[in-house]
Amino acid sequence: MAHPVHHAESSARKFGGNPQDYQSIHDWFDASKAHEALPSHRALRHHSLGIFEAQSVFGHEIVNSEGRRIPVRFIGEQHVREDCRRIPSVSDWLRGLPLEPWMVNGVILPDLEKVGPDPRHDWQVAVASGQTDLGFKDWIEEKELRLQAQAARKLAA
After folding, report:
1. Can you tell me the distance from the alpha carbon of 7 to that of 23, in angstroms, rounded to the nearest whole number?
2. Which of 32, 66, 68, 131 could link 44 by a cystine bridge, Cβ 3.0 to 4.6 Å?
3. CB–CB of 27/21 below 8 Å?
4. Does residue 80 share a domain with residue 140?
């Protein structure tokens, strides 16, 4: 299948109702195309875990426009089978993944990162260097929580 619209049309033929009944589920499965417009985008949701994640997003079933209750798992299985011809596991996708140095280069970050006189500048530096992907407000809140945790550890010691 090439497009979520085609998957939705296939669902309507298989389960009844209109393609619109299924469109949001198929859009969800293919949302990773926004980041990786290659078939490898499927590694993020086109597997058995992805099908169960779809259930947690959309519920265990939908009611289509004909009033028929359709398990979301059936819709997800249909989507994955149409794209992959089977339902792979996460391990199937990861098995051939080459390990890169950045994947195994972890470090213990200091408990307290100093915030200078211009916190917005410090946040921008942290974003630019890949240390955080938090928004400014969330970053500031995280810093405050770290300070509180550090103070609590000192009191307990």
Report:
1. 8
2. 32
3. no
4. no
pTM, entire model: 0.68
Same domain, 70 and 138: no
pLDDT given at position 112: 55
Indicate if 84 and 27 belong to the same structural domain. Answer: yes
Integer Cα distance of 25 and 8 in angstroms: 8
**pLDDT at site 5:** 96
Res 101: pLDDT? 83
C-alpha span between 25 and 140 (Å, rounded):
35
**CA distances for 143 relative to 29, 107, 109, 110, 157, angstroms:** 35, 18, 13, 12, 21
Cβ contacts of residue 43 below 8 Å, gap of 6+? 93, 94
Q: 70 — phi, psi (to 5°)?
A: -120, 125
Nearest partner of 29 among 58, 66, 9, judged by Cα: 58
The low-confidence residues of the chain, meaning pLDDT below 70, are: 1, 108-115
**Has residue 101 been placed in a domain?**
no
d(CA 45, CA 38): 14
